[in-house]
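go over my protein:
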Amino acid sequence: MNVRLLPAAQSELDEAIRWYAQQAPGLGDSFLVEFLRTIQLIEQHPLGWHPLSSQTRRCRLRRFPYGVIYNVDQDSVLVIAVAHLHRRPAYWQGRMN
């Protein structure tokens, strides 16, 4: 399954990695590894996570307070947001248009 990130989602991912890297040595790398594991799970079971709407789903990262917001097409996953789950809920909904 092909996985793509919207530019805004890629920016969120990069920002989160940078922020965690500043907090403690190796923590940014740990965040990236956790994100990649989450993407692998989504690839294996794209419909296996909580639907947020008829088009979007959310898979939470285990160790960090983030969720991957995505939608599924026939053979691809589009990551709409790498969302901090304790800040501005549903801010990403404007990206669906």
